[in-house]
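Task: complex structure prediction.
Instruction: return structure tokens for all chains below.
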Amino acid sequence: MTGTSMSSERNKQVWNVIVWLLLLTMPYWMPLTGGYTALASRVVVLALAAMALNFLLGFTGILSFGHAAYFGLGAYGVGMTIKYLVPSTGLGIIVGILIGTLAAALIGALIVKLRGVYFAMVTIAFGQVFYFIAFRWNSVTGGDDGLSGWRRVPLDLGFTQIDILGNDKAFYYLVLFCFALSCAAMAFILKSPFGRTLLAIRENERRARFLGIPVERHIWISFVISCFFVSLAGALYALLNNFTDPRALRWDQSGNFVIMAVLGGMRSFWGPLIGAIIFVVLQDYVSTQTEYWMSIIGIFFMAVVLFFPRGVLGMLKRKRAA
Amino acid sequence: MTTLILFNIFNGLIVGAFYALMALGLSLILNLSGVINFAHGGFLALGGYFAYELMRHGFDYWSALLIAPTLVAVLGLVVERLLIRRIYGRDPLYGLLLTFGLAFVLQDATRYFWTAQSVPYQIPGVLASPLSTQFFFLTGYRLFMIAIVAIAVIGLFLILNRTRLGMRIRAGTLDLDTVSALGVNVRLLRNVNFALGIFLAGLAGVLAAGMLGLQPTIGDSLIMPSFVAIIVGGLGSLPGTLLGGLLIGVASGITTVVFPSATEAVMYVMMGLVLLLRPRGLLGEEGRLQ
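Output:
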């Protein structure tokens, strides 16, 4: 190992420690910057969604513009479980993940042969199916008004109860716990031979194919893994709001995930987290300032594309390399 | 019952004509420039509002029908020149995000100038009355819309097949580098092509406003079906896009009779079936998928 790569390895570890320290203390410093605990939870939940998307986008090189569908399925899964079946947060999360992942497995199998702009377009269109189901199936999903009349249930661990309903901070740490597990799992997969193969497909699909790698199967698995974590994020998002509505699965939500990944830097593991922090805080701020916040977000999208296409971390990396 | 089914098929045909008109514009831009224009619905709304303003300022409907889309197309020229041009040749991701942001801006702009409520939109009395009492749904306006869409589509195919510009667009769709090497100004070609696509969106807006009512979100319900129309019809094929639009329109129309709550879902089922059985789409060319 050369000196530079050793120092970059140590750099990485230092950054990891800083990131986790900031996340662990977020409910305590967020109020100082004008935020609140629920905003901290929202940042972490959406960061999880953006990182899950980036597993596919940044590390497999496949652009999905329809991830909100699986996010929303996770949200409706947990909401409907708690409302109609069993009042259990844990079980609700599991059902939400199962529904989202199953849908992703089916749709993924249909679209895995497509590439580039065509893949993106089909994922957008398929995302709309679930939007219309949630929108139209009034009696069960609450239609346009959303699924309300349910709340997250305190966690029962047998020996003790955790009041995630009444205590904002307790819920934040549940979210952070899920986030940490997901990050560890994704990092582990990316370091495994399977993850290295995904990178190879991203870099040169044709060469990977010549090496005998079943490219379609790898992309399909990557898509399903990505949607697994995005459904988890959706379930947590519904629990955070004690509510979900069809907007959770509409295409503009998918666009938000993509912009978070790009804004932070889609070639970096932590990029989407940084993108999510910037985006969520900005959205929270401008939506309280003006009725026309959508156009500010729109201009922000365009500015990112035109001036920061590599994202925050991508630019930092480039600067260091120069 | 027969009347009801006929009514819904006819209705589906009209809606399908809108899908097709919008999808043709999207397809034109996508084929030549590789950009999925999310903001197409925003341009559609602008078409409606420009016509509304023109009529408020003394123009009659017929001239508004032609002037409004032209104005939107001019705006398209400018937008392409200032924004869209910058992301050609880059990852399709950036085109999606850019036009996505543009869609937000356009929608807020229309909301700012004309409020979020729908504005009164007059169509000429000649067109508003039913032509027959038995087939009450055959209003002049509906037939008129179909006629205009048909004229626009025929015009588009004439331009593409009979003019030098159309020839260049078609050639550029196949191999832009070669077209450029042969001395065609590709930047200008893409500029004009973008405006042509936007013209169709504007025209669809003027027509749709008379049927759906004019509000800033009017394009929202039309853009997703247009994507589906392109996928069903086959990427890279304009006749395919036209066919796809009409097919999913009629399919939704028929579904409204049988199972109303699946009206929107049916087109996605069709898309799934097409992808399963014929991934390149009904009239799509082999090898376009990559």
